[in-house]
Amino acid sequence: MPYKILFLLGHMRSGSSLLSHILVTNPEIVGFGETHIKYSVEGDFEKLILKIHQVVGNSPVDLNYFFDKILHNNMFINEAILCSEQVYLIFLLREPQQSLASIIKLKPHWNQKQALGYYSRRLAKLETYAKLINSKKRSFFLTHDQLLHKTELVFKSLQYFLQVQQPFSEEYEILPTTGMRFIGDQSERIKSGRIIRYNQISESSISPDLIKQGIQAFDQCINTLSEYCQTI
Prior knowledge:
Elements: E1 4-9, H1 16-25, E2 29-30, H2 45-56, E3 65-70, E4 87-93, H3 96-106, H4 112-133, E5 139-143, H5 144-149, H6 151-162, H7 208-228
Parallel strand pairs: 1-3, 1-4, 2-3, 4-5
């Protein structure tokens, strides 16, 4: 098939909504965020294409990629689908202190251990995906910090990885789904249409022991993804 599937694989509160908007503003990439489609066979890619058409309308003529964002471990019923030559992956991580505090703010019914459990399991699964694909041609890894503070290098690296003609920009299009619940970030910041760099929370109520465990998972995942993926 001429088209390719681009999955952004991250965790909740990883900055995935920001990166999603930046990616789909490029005319060669079409999508809107989390579709919540569960994938088991390549035929399920047609479900993605249909859902994107329903939400954003007709695809541009120079389209190369249909985009989806995946933040949970149960979305690939058959993980081998990721080995399809049609599939390209971008892995996105954010360090644990900010991630855990933000996850708990998003899900106030979760305690700190539940937030760490989700974060650690998700990062372990991302390692599994990278090892399964084992293709630097189709896998790229970056961190939230790099997106904010090494932006131009990230954009140039992504353009090279995806082989798109138009460069990426700090300014992005506001979509009909921007800020919608279950699609992505609901904060006012995402509605600005540009990258906003802000001072991160320096103090956190997260237990130091849990942060330590989160750092171990984060460092382990970075090491694995750096080995199996392209990066900046």
